[in-house]
Amino acid sequence: MEPSGTSTEQIRFGVYELDLRTGELRKSGVRVRLQDQSFQILQALLKNPGEVVTREELRKTIWPADTFVDFDHGLYSAMTRLREALNDSAETPRYIETLSRRGYRFVAPVDGIPVIKPQTSIGAKQTQQQTASEPKLGRKSARLRWTVVASATILAIGLAVSGWLSFSRKTHVLTDKDTIVLADFTNTTGDPVFDGTLTQGLSVQLEQSPFLSIISDEQVQQALQTMGQKPDSRLTPGVARELCQRTGSAAVIDSSIAQIGAQYLLTLKAVNCANGESLASAEAQANDKNHVLDALGKTASEMRSKLGESLSTLQRFDVPLEQATTSSLEAWQAYGLAGRKLHAMDFSTALPLWQRAISLDPNFALAYAGLGLTYLNLGETDLAAENLKKAYELRDRVSEREKFLISEAYDSAVTGDLENKIQICELWVQTYPRDPGAFNELGAAYGMSGQPEKSLAAFIEAARLAPRSAMWNSNLAINYIFLNRSDEARATIQQAQSQDVDTPYFRPLLYQIDFLRNDAAGMANQVAKSMGGPIEDRMLAIESDTAAYSGQLSKADTLTKRAVDSAVRWHVKQNAAGYLAEAALRDVLFGDTSRVKHLAATALQTSTDRDTEAVVALALALSNNRQQVQRLADDLATRFPEDTLTRFYYVPMIHAAVALEDGQDSKAIDALQPATRYEFVPQKSLYGSYLRGTAHLAARQGAPAAADFQKILDHRGMVTNDSIGVLAHMQLGRAYALTGDTAKAKTAYQDFLTLWKDADPDIPILKQAKAEYAKLN
């Protein structure tokens, strides 16, 4: 320390150094821009470390008596800029502590404290002289304290140029393995337009980052339930911190908005959820209500930087919030409410909310996407396509992440171009390697295009990134079932449930696993648990398929009717239409064509979505209703010219079915050639093999027919309780009989008749099978 009566030219604290000669502040040797009034405040505080510097003292020093100024606003603005420069927080100060209505105090250890003459000192305070060793001890104790914090992987010293918050640039605030939780905004303005709106906006802004990973709404709801909270409970700072701990996340971002006169103050604070220590904070002011979203975007960008994101990704993925979404708070509010209703599958309530958001901002791309997805769930495919097209046209207005989402949804629901969807999703996972949604959509793209092994790998990664997500675990379990790995599917679900992650949508999967294991009691248990809920119609339809699989068509028809009625009650018309179309196809496969036209017409009156229309066309083709079939095939080709499954799977099968009815067996086999690549798709899995085997039988080619039907039996997970799964046994018997292998033929027929031991006796195909088996004996 310099002798008394002299002045030290540099003052050091933490990683900062203030040069009193030049008026410069440096951090780790790098100059930090600091406006004059903020500099004067810092200088005043450093001259009196540990002491309270009153607001009046600051006013006299910074603004002379003859200066006309709004002192409160000026001091607040200058102090805000100073804290931003120091990466400090008013709530959890490392450097400057606020004493309400009194003043401020500098609380960090300081080195090189100048001894200031009384006439130049605020309050004429005198500091004690220290020995030369004392500053070194002070710095050492600070480092030890910081090292202890760093050992818990939470160290908040200063924002380095690289965008990392670190000590010696080694320990980062967050890593690319961490997840974060967003608490709901604390709104003290009294204006309800900010409730939920700002939290949703912050989420969109932070999710632009390839570095940060926010836990999903589904994970939040699951965790809240285990905490004894309602799924829609507000995430107060306390609740969010507990939720953060339960989900194994690293940090909570607490947010608030307050009104100061006509202005609004937005504050974000990242907190270590394990020990409550502050990691980073950011503040911004909006001059009026119309600029709140702009201020929110700026604080979010600043927070991304302070949490460790690189400058390169910040520059590349930082679309302003108003551009990425909307400048209308009211539209944003409607959007947030609609999103929650969509997530809760309350589609009818979501519709007017999406429509309100769009009426308030006709260029709100994400609202069009949400409206399109809602219509899709309601079976209104034309309206869904119309709105998803609009979202796609406006995609340049959204962030990069939302652009991926809209583009792949467009290819899923509008064009159906799976190759393009795969390319988009592959680029999505490369750009956002921590986004489980990206891997989930990639898995779906691979699965829809008949590549189950690739699909499984993507779903495994999605579940790894979000292990507590019911959605990702459901998709992973589905893929395991599809690949005949039902034990792993059950283990996936049980592992999720052991972590308090559960959903009604696990029940159909557990049912299918129990079906594959011939566990009738387990199947009945899953059905009972599903009644009265959102998957009731699906479970009734699955039960209907199981009844048909056993040849109990009367029971299957009753269950189908109940499934249709349930789907209508739950406002999922597309499901209802699908159940009717499946019933028509089932009747034809079992040899009964008496109701096909009626069921087909009812299905098409309910919905004309691609899958319903394709299954109806297939049923009509196999029942020799040529004129209507050609019209439907042409309509599919016209409406879905780029759709991969329409072009290479559905239409080829329809043409093959027509050729079969015409007795043109070779033509049917040739027509099915394009469908070979797509036989492992979830929609009507292996129906191409079944039709090809039927054509080979008609052509009296026993060996290739046997190979086709055996392929179905070897992939039980793909067909589970679909009718072709049981009919393949009988058809295999016919194929072996053609080859002259009577023993194998008998075994195949016996397998079929055993499965149909309780079947309705008047089913045409059962009578044929019994007669054919008798001839073998």
Task: Provide an overview of this structure.
With 777 residues, the protein is an alpha+beta fold. Among the domains are: 126 residues, Arc Repressor Mutant, subunit A, CATH 1.10.10; 144 residues, Rossmann fold, CATH 3.40.50; 138 residues, Serine Threonine Protein Phosphatase 5, Tetratricopeptide repeat, CATH 1.25.40. It contains 36 helices and 12 strands. The strands form 3 sheets. Strands 8, 9, 10, 11 and 12 form a 5-stranded mixed beta sheet that branches. A hairpin with a 2-residue loop joins β1 and β2. α21 runs antiparallel to α22, α27 packs antiparallel against α28 and α29 packs parallel to α31. The relative contact order is 0.05. The N terminus is likely disordered.
In short:
58% of the residues lie in helices and 8% in strands. By secondary structure, the chain is an alpha+beta fold. Helix 16 (418-431) runs antiparallel to helix 17, helix 23 (536-549) runs antiparallel to helix 24 and helix 30 runs antiparallel to helix 31.
